[in-house]
Amino acid sequence: MLTVADRVEIVQGLKAGWSIRVIAGHLDRSASVVSREVRRNSTKTYGYRLVNADCAAERRRRRPQVGKVAGDEVLRSRVLADLARSRTPWQIAGRLRLEAEDDSVGLMKASPAGGRQDGVP
After folding, report:
1. pLDDT tens digits, one per residue of 35-73
2. Is 112 in contact with 81 (CB distance < 8 Å)?
3. Are residues 16 and 39 in the same domain?
4. Which residue segment(s) compose the domain that 82 sits in?
5. What separation in angstroms does the CA of 26 have from each of 17, 20, 43, 54?
6. In a 3-state reduction of DSSP, which class is residue 26?
7. Rounded Cα distance, 43 and 21, in Å
């Protein structure tokens, strides 16, 4: 995802006559990312327009959506409690997946009850 600062650099690079590859190198991005950005947000009359590009990118963005953890209060409390116990996100995700797939697996030690994704307490 490009930021407004990245788009400013693209505008300045295009005005300076830089190639897409040079601009991409300056931004430390792939040339295809910069090329797609310029192609999507350029017109024949005005060329690349920074404000239009940023507004169009905002409209195209799939977010903001409510994430899985944020949308489920029980899951959220379980994840936050496990994070507070210094468990990594990978440990938590793996354990939740294991608990959801195998009914014989109990809760992770010291995890709050009710955090199973399949609704089983």
Report:
1. 999 999 998 898 999 899 988 888 887 766 788 888 899
2. yes
3. yes
4. 68-101
5. 14, 10, 24, 19
6. helix
7. 20
Please give the structure tokens belonging to residue 4: 């407004």
Which one, of 88, 120, 78, lies nearest residue 101 by Cα? 120
The CA angle 62-64-99, to the nearest 5 degrees, is 95
2-39 b/e with 16+ CB inside 10 Å = b? beeebbebbbebbeeebebeebbeebebeeeebeebbe
* Residues 31 and 74 occupy one common structural domain: no
For residues 85 and 79, the answer to whether their CB atoms sit within 8 Å is no
Write down the pLDDT at residue 118.
46
